[in-house]
Amino acid sequence: MSDDVVLRSESLTRTYGSGTTEVRALVDATLDVRAGELVVLRGPSGSGKTTLLNLLGGLDIPTSGTVWLGERRVTGASDRDLVDMRRREIGYIFQTFALLSALTAAENVELPMRLVGVAADERAARVDELLSVVGLGEHAKQRPNELSGGQQQRLGIARALANNPRLIIADEPTGQLDSLNAETMMSLISTLVHERDVAAIVSTHDPRMATHADRILEIHDGRLSARRGRHAGALREGI
Predict the structure, then answer these.
(1) Which of 198-212 are b and which e, b meaning 16 or more Cβ less than 10 Å from the residue's Cβ?
(2) What does the pLDDT read at residue 229?
(3) Inter-residue contact 204 to 45 (CB < 8 Å)
(4) What confidence score (pLDDT) does residue 209 get?
(5) How far apart are CA 114 and CA 136, in angstroms?
(6) Domain identity same for 123 and 148
(7) Are residues 130 and 106 in the same domain?
(8) Number of Cβ atoms within 10 Å of the Cβ of 47
């Protein structure tokens, strides 16, 4: 884990409604995530995990507060800049996999590269490398519905890495997997984060998944608190 802060937020708050119907989904959330660090965001359903991740990834706009991706300010960025950041600098891993059923495994991984204009030869080489890394090298021509749930999520991880992002955001990536596949997924994400020096924030309600964290953030009723992770000697105090 380096000292390079990839993701930073200050005093993020998100409210819905107003007056007597106002709901505070997130309250004053300040955090940072560094290159090569796996931060696990843990809390029960409805605690604010998805709200926070959506704000960090520029998919939602905070009521107040600010998000930075490196030196780029996410909050208040133009739609064009947000699209560029999401395509080039952020890799998303979804609970529901969100794969395109009409495309093969290789084509699902290749698509993000096409969107940013990566040359054909480089696309082909990177697809082969990423499918091999996640153990799907022999499944390149299969479509998502021909793969198991665990294989589909591994494909989702390969796609998230397609454009060599600085940040990975994963919202309950093991939510639809059995315990064995869930453990495999978190181990794979942890390995890739550390080997590729990527910053990652992963939400879960499963306390077993937190064993892979470098740092744990707890969220309850929209409020963050911090715990140490497994690499205690390398961690800072607090959030």
Answers:
(1) bbbbbbbbbeebbeb
(2) 55
(3) no
(4) 81
(5) 20
(6) yes
(7) yes
(8) 22
Run of H or E residues at 68:
strand 64-69
pLDDT confidence of residue 232: 39
Instruction: Provide the pLDDT for residue 235.
Output: 38
pTM of the predicted structure, to 2 decimals: 0.91
Containing 50, the helix (H) or strand (E) segment is: helix 49-56
Q: Which residues of the chain have pLDDT under 50?
A: 231-239
End-to-end CA distance of the chain: 16
User: In this predicted model, what pLDDT tens digit does every residue of 61-91 receive, in sequence order?
Assistant: 999 999 999 999 999 999 999 999 999 999 9
Residues 9 and 76 in one domain: yes
- 3-21 residue pLDDT tens: 799 999 999 999 999 888 8
> Are 30 and 161 within 8 A, CB to CB?
no
List Cβ neighbours of 180 (8 Å cut-off, separation of 6 or more): none
> Which structural domain range is residue 46 located in?
1-89+166-174+199-234
Q: Rounded to whole angstroms, how far apart are CA atoms 134 and 85?
A: 24
Give Cα 218 distance to the centre of its chain.
16
Sequence-distant (≥ 6) Cβ neighbours of residue 199 within 8 angstroms: 6, 7, 33, 34, 35, 36, 37, 39, 166, 167, 168, 193
CATH number at residue 25: 3.40.50.300
Structure tokens at 67: 């998000």
Q: Are residues 170 and 77 in the same domain?
A: yes
Total of domains in the chain: 2
